[in-house]
Specification:
The protein has two helices and 24 strands. It is mainly beta.
Length: 469
């Protein structure tokens, strides 16, 4: 992910690569007990044959009893399999917005909170943001992070070591530190031992390629709940590029605010708890959901020059990446508050919205005993596009971590962009391609969700008399 420019497509590709890279580590420890049952059996058969005629019972005579003994030995094997988590932390993506990191002569990266809130004109068309006031100087991204228990210090608790598949530290628009296979050593101090955990984590990370740098830091963390975590950082990174033509040394003192999604944390005692007994806080945790939609938009994103009756039936696509729906203590915990790392609602060539970390309220209804579910939802997207999105989603699980979805919805708001720099967008007015930033459309769609773990009411940790209740 060590690039100087991000759009939604490369970000998705890199995140998928990070998922594959982090998945190379062992996340499950399997223990097998093999039992052999031995059965010993002896069958005794006795037969007495009395000779015909009269006998003198007063005289002792040899007995005619015949006894037969048959012994058998049987063996039966059985295997008991137990699966345990084998990691302290597994994280798909972490984004941190940096403050105080910029060089005196450098500009901000203009990437906003968590390094994720870019201006939509920059995302889609490569245009500079119109707003010139920026709170955050730069950003730090981590993708594909895993941590395991570290036993170096006489088995002292809460020590871990980790590997990050891709890491980028960009303090400003002119400087950058990137790492692949970044090593780290961490120590956690738990201020709260119940979900969501509250921890203080000193950490030191080391990168060798493509940039050599050291990054000591201290972070305060809340999570994980549904794979979502909030973080506050203070750190000091320093290093230089190994293969650069110049030997410029970069120092990056920074403070930052961060968020991570699909980020799961286990305490050491949880490593000895079988997977099937782990507590769940979310109705849905998934990687990606894509839906192809037909809408009332005039033009399709797949054929922007065709309009009206000539336009294709499929007008656009909606998608969510890195999804979490966390149960709320209302309506028997069937109400959830969810989010996703990236949310796209593309209903037509000029009816579109892109949201980062939106808030989504969902009611989870399972009308039958099967896993089929109906989910009315309402969603608010803040940036880079500001719009509301509501509808009903029906989900049909068809395989492990895969579902077919049907969605009927409505979206209304502001794209956040007015001048489109591409000829395919908008309409020609005074030799400029202008797009009305306001949009609204109703749609129907069919799609699928992949690497999607759907839980039921009985899977949730609530209402079971656990100590946290």
């Amino acid at each position: 992910m060590s690039v100087t420019r991000f759009t939604s497509s490369p970000l998705l590709i890199l995140a998928l690569l990070a998922l594959v890279a982090s998945g190379c580590g062992t996340i499950t420890r399997v223990e097998r007990d093999v039992y052999t049952t031995t059965t010993l059996d002896t069958v005794v058969t006795q037969r007495v044959t009395n000779p015909p005629g009269e006998r003198d019972n007063g005289v002792i005579a040899p007995s005619s009893r015949v006894e037969n003994r048959v012994r058998t030995v049987g063996y039966a094997d059985s295997i008991s399999v137990r699966e345990y988590p084998n990691f302290i932390r597994w994280c798909l993506f972490e984004g941190v917005s940096l403050v105080g990191s910029a060089d005196a002569n450098s500009e901000s990266t203009k990437t906003g909170l968590f390094g994720l809130y870019r201006d939509i004109n920059d995302v889609l068309f490569g245009e500079d943001p119109q707003d010139t006031s920026f709170i955050f100087d730069g950003y730090m991204f981590r993708m594909g992070l895993m941590e395991w228990k570290l036993d170096w210090f006489d088995h002292a608790p809460d020590w871990s070591w980790g590997v990050t598949a891709f890491e980028i530290i960009r303090p400003d628009n002119d400087n950058i530190l990137t790492g692949a296979g970044v090593l780290s050593v961490n120590k956690r101090f738990y201020l709260r031992s119940k979900i969501p955990y509250v921890t203080i984590r000193p950490s030191v990370s080391l990168s060798l390629l493509p940039t050599q740098y050291v990054n000591p830091s201290v972070s305060a963390e809340i999570g994980s709940i549904g794979g979502v975590n909030l973080r506050a950082y203070v750190g000091y990174a320093f290093g230089s590029a190994l293969f650069s033509s110049t030997s410029e040394f970069i120092t990056v003192p920074y403070a930052g605010l961060g968020v991570s999604v699909m980020d799961f944390l286990n305490r050491e005692e949880e490593l000895d708890t079988e997977w099937k007994y782990h507590e769940h806080s979310a109705w849905d945790v998934g990687l990606i959901e894509l839906t192809f939609v037909g809408s009332e938009a005039d033009r399709s994103i797949f054929a922007t020059r065709r309009s009206g009756a000539d336009a294709p039936m499929i007008k656009g696509v909606t998608g969510r990446f890195a999804i979490a729906d966390i149960a709320l203590p209302f309506l028997d915990y069937r109400l959830s508050l969810g989010t996703s790392l990236i949310n796209t609602v593309l209903l037509g060539s000029t009816e579109y919205g892109i949201g980062v970390l939106p808030l989504r309220l969902t009611y989870h209804w399972m009308p039958f005993t099967s896993s089929f579910r109906v989910e009315p939802f309402a969603e608010v997207n803040f940036a880079p596009s500001s719009f509301v999105h509501a509808g009903v989603r029906m989900s049909f699980p068809v395989a492990d971590q895969m579902s077919i979805t049907f969605v009927a919805g409505w979206a209304n708001g502001n794209t956040g962009s007015r001048v489109a720099g591409l000829e395919e967008f908008g309409f020609s007015i005074d030799q400029r391609r202008l797009v009305d930033p306001h949009f609204g459309a109703i749609y129907l769609g069919i799609g699928a969700s992949l690497f999607d773990q759907l839980f039921t009411r009985k899977d949730l940790r609530y209402g079971k008399g656990y100590p946290h209740e």
